[in-house]
């Protein structure tokens, strides 16, 4: 169990740092589009989780430490639906309802599509 905890922790740090870097980069280059980093990491995270899930279904012998480290740790640290909620509220509060609802729709439906695409890639 300790190996799984360590794997999740180390991978979680990597995912979290990647998310932090993406947010800082977007804010430095496009501060008006502060929500773009959250949208990008959520869609990429959904693609990655679908891909990993499909790969692990095909390869059940992959150790739990690797599976949990990548899915729970890395992808869990990378994706940020709590930030997504805050970004959406910030857009609504600033009177940008059309952008907020577009962001909401792209995040949810794009995330589902990206997860499906990742899973489908494992079946090629």
From TrEMBL:
Keywords: Cell inner membrane, Cell membrane, Ion channel, Ion transport, Membrane, Metal-binding, Sodium, Transmembrane, Transmembrane helix, Transport. Na(+) binds at residues 76, 79. One of its GO terms (cellular component) is plasma membrane. It is found in: Cell membrane. Pfam families: CRCB (PF02537). The keyword Hydrolase does not apply. It comes from the Bacteria. One of its GO terms (molecular function) is metal ion binding. It is a multi-pass membrane protein. Na(+) is not transported, but it plays an essential structural role and its presence is essential for fluoride channel function. The chain crosses the membrane at residues 33-56, 68-86, 98-119. It catalyses: fluoride(in) = fluoride(out). GO terms for biological process: cellular detoxification of fluoride. Belongs to the fluoride channel Fluc/FEX (TC 1.A.43) family. Fluoride-specific ion channel. Important for reducing fluoride concentration in the cell, thus reducing its toxicity. This is Fluoride-specific ion channel FluC. It comes from Pseudomonas frederiksbergensis. The lineage of its organism: Bacteria, Pseudomonadati, Pseudomonadota, Gammaproteobacteria, Pseudomonadales. The gene is fluC.
